[in-house]
Amino acid sequence: MKILKIGGSVITNKDKYRSVNREAIANIAKVLGEFPEPLILVHGAGSFGHNKSLEFGLDTPGKVRGKEIEISTVINDVLSLNSIISDALAAEGFRGISLPTHAIYGNNGPNLDIVEEMLRNTFSPILYGDIIIQKGNYRIISGDEIILDMSRKFKPDEIIFATDVDGLYSSDPKEYSNAKFFRDVRASELNIKDKGKDATGSMTGKVEKIKLMLPFTRKVMIVNGMFPERLKKALNDEDTIGTVVH
Ligand code: ATP
Ligand code: IP8
Predict the structure, then answer these.
(1) Domains, the chain
(2) Which atom of ligand 1 is the closest one to the Cα of 44?
(3) How does pLDDT run across 144-184, given as a tens digit for each residue?
(4) Which atom of ligand 2 approaches the CA of 46 most closely?
(5) Is there an atom of ligand 1 within 6 Å of 192 CB?
(6) Ligand 1 centroid distance, CA of 121 (Å)
(7) What angle do CA 203, 148, 23 make, to 5 degrees?
(8) Assign residue 57 a region: left if phi > 0, alpha if psi is -120 to 50, beta otherwise?
(9) How far away, in angstroms, is 161 Cα from ligand 1 center?
(10) What CA–CA distance (Å, rounded) separates 201 from 208?
(11) What pTM value is reported for the model?
């Protein structure tokens, strides 16, 4: 079984509140509609989650009391993005079922029985970066953290991250034209420090989570989700441009 994270940088325009990249979503939906096995799909929040979370100061976890409007705004925004994604996937025949993350993560952690039951019935569960409320406190949970929890339980064969860059570089390729691209890299050698522009630590946050999920999977790969044929190859375990993290 595979786990795929479709990054918010692919499906949304992260600089513009609630702005979707419909073309990228449609292209990815086509690839997934043709993929024959159930998988766990997780998508990022992009501009439906990060912008308001930062504006409202929700990137720091805390007591729900006094922040109710802000929290419900972000939870509703990411739910809207999830509807857009699940509609596009359904249009391509993908057998996905959305499991809102805030409804799966209770006081005692995630209810993975529901995820397991969906997989057993050949559905692909769809979760996403969200805000969860536990014992009167809220906190943002990234899609990457959800994948770490899923990996511990389901020991996926492969975990694929689709972002808007070709893979991992020595520094942010959007800021440094001389950044060196890694086709293959050891997590222990990675020391990515980006400016953490979003509410979940951007690429630095992702790499920290990837390091923790490596013991539970055979392969972690980062590919550019703007190129659907690369995503297709990664899903089929064929060689393609991207970074394999060991
Ligand atoms: P989301 O958290 O919204 O789902 P995502 O999973 O698509 O987003 P980001 O957290 O936005 O991914 O991380 C991807 C971004 O990280 C790229 O757009 C790139 O500019 C930036 N980045 C910073 N440092 C690096 C690096 N060393 N290698 C590759 N990308 C980097
Ligand atoms: O986009 C972030 O999830 P991510 C969730 O996977 C929110 O990092 C609400 C900002």
Answers:
(1) 2-245 (3.40.1160.10)
(2) 4
(3) 999 999 999 999 999 999 999 999 999 999 999 999 999 99
(4) 1
(5) yes
(6) 33
(7) 55
(8) left
(9) 10
(10) 10
(11) 0.97
